[in-house]
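User: Could you write out the 3D structure of this protein bound to biotinyl-5-AMP? I've included everything you need below.
Assistant: Certainly. Input first, then the structure.
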Amino acid sequence: MLRDDILHFLAAHPEKYVSGERISQQLKVTRAAIWKQIQVLKEEGFEIEGQTKNGYCLLKTPFSLNEWVLKKALTTSSLGSKITLEDELESTNVRAKELARQGGVHGQVVLARRQSSGRGRLQRQWESPRGGLWMSVVLSPNLSLADASKLTLAASVAIVDAFEELFSLRIGIKWPNDLIFNGMKIAGILGEVVGEWNTVQTLILGIGINVNFRREQLSPLLNATTLFEILKDDVDLNILAATILKHLDKQVISLENKEFEELRVCWLERAVGLGEEVRVLQREQVTQGKFTGITIDGALLLDTEDGEKSFTAGEVQLRSKMGKYFSL
Ligand code: BT5
């Protein structure tokens, strides 16, 4: 695409002005066509300075999701090898599933700048205003179905590590895969199997992160926060996506190498509530006990009055400093 070619050309000359004439000769199009595409790029959020005498200089790439910027930031071999980016989708997981059924490739990534009907687990809603990172990854890893369920644990670890690397910010994982900061949810993960695992062997990993928008954009009923509220600044969503994919890539490879114990330890190092009294809610049943760890399969271990119990599903309530148990 001409627009991408112009960007490549400008990016190849960082902090330099390149004349419209040179670009037009190189790309074999008119200077008017270049000018037109530069205007489109500016609308997309690229800061390009144009000087009549010297030509164009790329000053800044957009923080909002942009395929060219994202591809440039990617360091992975397979994750992100194919990217689908839409301004709005109902749900990136739904689109990723459709693409997977049509023969999507391992590592294909689907992103939307906003979702009109984002989904959580158990048909719950996921609020997805503009400014967030709403991303689904199609994965066909070399794993059994039982081991594939560990991918959601791996994704939680990847998000924590990306936050630490980029923002020196330590967020925690609340079992099984809520990402929280100061007791408030900042991100969630939705893993879904496509078709029958034995025949298709594809999983969709949906990652939702509240990034460049204010808390007020979400329903007041939620116990939630956003990265903007914490950093008081916007961040580059493309760099964030690329960094998460880099960490996820690493995790997928170590899972394929059956390094499950490493993942368990990594997850526990990032967990919140470990060693503390928590409550696990399963339908009407409430179990209280000390959160002692997780099994190799990711089940939660609770030391209760009736001995050790393990849970593969349920909601965890942590205890606040005031001694009250709270949900997210
Ligand atoms: C999750 O579900 O936390 C999984 C969220 C996954 C969202 C991503 S976005 C990209 C991809 N495409 C999708 O359609 N989904 C994935 P769960 O643990 O069930 O939590 C859902 C609950 O979190 C809701 O019932 C609300 O209470 C709360 N919630 C909804 N939107 C939120 C938000 N933006 N931030 C924090 N909490 C939220």
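Residues 2-60 form a domain with the Arc Repressor Mutant, subunit A fold (CATH 1.10.10.10).
User: Perfect, thank you.
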